[in-house]
Specification:
The protein has about 150 residues and is mainly β. The protein has a single domain, classed as Lipocalin (Beta Barrel). Helices cover about 10% and strands about 55% of the residues. An eight-stranded antiparallel beta barrel has the order 1-3-4-5-6-7-8-9. The chain is globular, with a radius of gyration of 18 Å. About 15% of the residues are buried.
Length: about 150
């Protein structure tokens, strides 16, 4: 965002037309902050009896959303083999439309993922929707359904 401010200042200093900086998307405002998962459960689409409850096994998930819509998500959990704690970090852009939140990862690059959202309270958010998860740790994500309940710090 600082680069955008500097660019706008430089354009203004050159005597060009006045350019207003884009405002932060108002639909993002309720999501701004740092959220910690109290529930983070993924259920396999191929076999619905396979469920990974990552919080239950000592994992954690944190989502930080900035007013611009930029987000950073971090998922950590202990693998069942000698791999130990496996942190996954994703950075990208969030958008909100008609009851759905879409995360568009840029680092690492990936496909957008949309989830239905419900604010249980102003500081408690539920997300449900399709995702991918590597259930057997073969580095190939499998189609799954996500249920996440997040508490704002």
């Amino acid at each position: 965002m600082a680069v955008g401010v500097l660019a706008a200042a430089a354009i203004g200093a050159c005597g060009g037309s006045t350019t207003e900086l884009p405002t932060d998307p108002p639909e993002i405002e309720p999501f701004v902050g740092t959220w910690d998962a109290e529930v983070f459960r993924v259920r396999s689409d191929a076999d619905t009896t396979i469920v990974a409850d990552l919080i239950d096994i000592g994992g954690d998930f944190t989502l930080n959303v900035q007013p611009s819509g930029q987000y950073t998500a971090q998922l950590s959990f202990t693998a069942t083999d000698s791999l130990g704690i496996q942190p996954f970090v994703e950075i990208g852009e969030m958008s909100v439309t008609e009851g759905f939140v879409t995360l568009r990862p840029t680092v690492p690059p990936g496909s957008p993922a949309s989830s239905a959202f419900t604010f249980v309270r102003e500081d408690f958010l539920r997300l449900e929707g399709p995702t991918e998860f590597d259930f057997n740790l073969d580095e190939e994500p499998d189609p799954a359904q996500l249920l996440a309940e997040l508490q704002r710090r």
